[in-house]
Design brief:
- By secondary structure, the protein is of the alpha/beta class.
- Strand 12, helix 8 and strand 13 form a beta-alpha-beta unit.
- The protein starts with a strand and ends with a helix.
- The model has no long low-confidence stretch (mean pLDDT 90).
Length: 431
């Protein structure tokens, strides 16, 4: 599959030729992140950090922007990550994986030990091998370091074989091809794929849908930049063409789940229905009984608004994350796997109800009467009652009251439950 790349330099989104010559500059990182995240993982690369352009606090011109993007999708981040502290902080802020470049390699591998083993062992212990990607970028077949300005005197395949011990995947960039739109070095990629057993992501020069499909058939993913920004390739086409249509006889199972993770339904899609889902942002299937495209909700109005799609590891099943507008099942149930008519209670559902009460107040609505002062008073009152509760049923009752009033205060302050989850996740990962 394709991993879209957002390269940052000087606070801008850029695309460089051969890693140095500016070809494209734009300032819509947030929109790009939103668009790219529909189709898969996104790589964010801090080029200034890779080149050592940091201030006395260790920040670059891209730091604030980069941090703001980390929890907006399935993000991997790279560029100048040289310490375990830096890697751990990025993971705690929302990055799923970190890309380690120059710091993985010994600069003078004369003793035969080509890896910075002490650093990689410490990093693996701190964040786990599954969160580590090691760059095996090459110039003329040798590992490139220091923002691709030097080579480390390490042959690519030797470096890759050594590096996979400490990484869940390897990111290979053919630097000579980077940004040139002339195609990548397929022979070298194939050699690399055959040399290692971990996941391999190819980058640098990939310029066509045909080459992306060829790399997929080799068992490689693709990190794509220039071809996306110049609109030579569309992510929707990449997603569709990289699926295993032969195995599924032209129809891929699609599991629809809510943003809260609740499984809603199962349907089937062909290429045309997938493209319509991407274009309309409403989940569309191919109806086997009616032998035609079918957008869920076209009769009932209960559309499934598409947030993102992800293919599984075998490329023969899709997980679609959606926002449902009413009951999903034709029986009227909330999902096709229960007889419940309504969505299950959750913190997000409660928050949505509260938000609606403020946006569309109805006569007699208690929620609509709560101002900031009163809701804070109620939180103190309910917290005290909770600490005094002795019976289990009383504790449950008081916790429910407290959660309700806390949700009201959060809504007034513009704080989402996801913000709270993110903070809890950050605290967990920073330890």
């Amino acid at each position: 599959m394709v991993i879209a790349s957002i390269d940052l330099k000087g606070g801008h989104v850029v695309q460089l030729k051969n890693g140095k010559d500016l070809v494209i500059q734009r300032d819509d990182a947030e929109r790009l992140m939103q668009d790219f995240s529909v189709y898969g993982e996104v790589a964010i690369i801090d080029l200034d950090a890779a080149l050592g352009n940091r201030d006395e606090k260790g920040n670059t011109a891209n730091t604030a922007l980069l941090k703001s993007l980390l929890r907006k999708g399935n993000v991997r981040v790279g560029g100048g990550i040289k310490t375990v502290k830096q890697a751990r902080e990025l993971i705690s802020l929302g990055a799923e994986k970190v890309i380690i470049g120059s710091a993985a390699w010994k600069q003078n591998p004369s003793d035969g030990d080509i890896l910075n083993v002490e650093f990689l062992q410490e990093l693996t212990h701190a964040i786990g091998k599954q969160r580590i990607i090691i760059s095996v970028d090459s110039i003329n077949g040798n590992i490139a370091v220091k923002g691709w300005t030097q080579t480390a005197g390490i042959p690519l395949l030797d470096g890759a074989k050594a590096a996979e011990k400490y990484a869940s995947e390897l990111l290979f960039t053919c630097v000579e091809k980077e940004g040139c739109m002339q195609g990548t070095d397929m022979a070298l990629v194939e050699q690399l794929r055959n040399a290692v057993s971990c996941r391999v992501v190819a980058a640098g020069g990939v310029n066509s849908l045909e080459q992306i499909v060829a790399l997929e058939k080799l068992g490689c993913d693709v990190q794509l930049g220039m071809a996306l920004y110049t609109e030579k390739v569309r992510l929707s086409d990449c997603f569709c063409e990289c699926l295993n249509w032969e195995k599924t006889a032209g129809l891929i199972p699609v599991i629809a789940q809510s943003t809260a993770g609740e499984v809603l339904m199962l349907g089937y899609a062909n290429k045309e229905s997938l493209q319509k889902s991407f274009e309309t942002k409403k989940l569309t299937f191919f109806s086997r009984t009616r032998n035609k495209l079918w957008t869920k909700g076209e009769s009932s109005g209960h559309f499934l608004e598409l947030e993102k799609m992800r293919a599984d590891c075998d490329r023969d099943t899709i997980l679609a994350t959606v926002v449902p507008n009413g009951g999903v099942c034709h029986t009227g149930s909330w999902t096709c796997f229960t007889s419940e008519a309504d969505e299950k209670s959750s913190l997000e559902r409660l928050y949505g109800i509260i938000a609606n009460r403020f946006a569309n107040p109805t006569p007699g609505s208690y929620t609509a009467t709560l101002n900031s002062t009163r809701v804070r008073e109620k939180i103190l009152e309910e917290a005290e009652e909770l600490t005094e509760a002795e019976e289990k049923s009383d504790v449950i009752w008081e916790v429910a009251d407290l959660i309700y009033f806390v949700s009201v205060l959060m809504q007034k302050e513009g704080v989402l439950w996801q913000d709270v989850y993110n903070e809890l996740d950050r605290r967990h990962k920073e330890k």
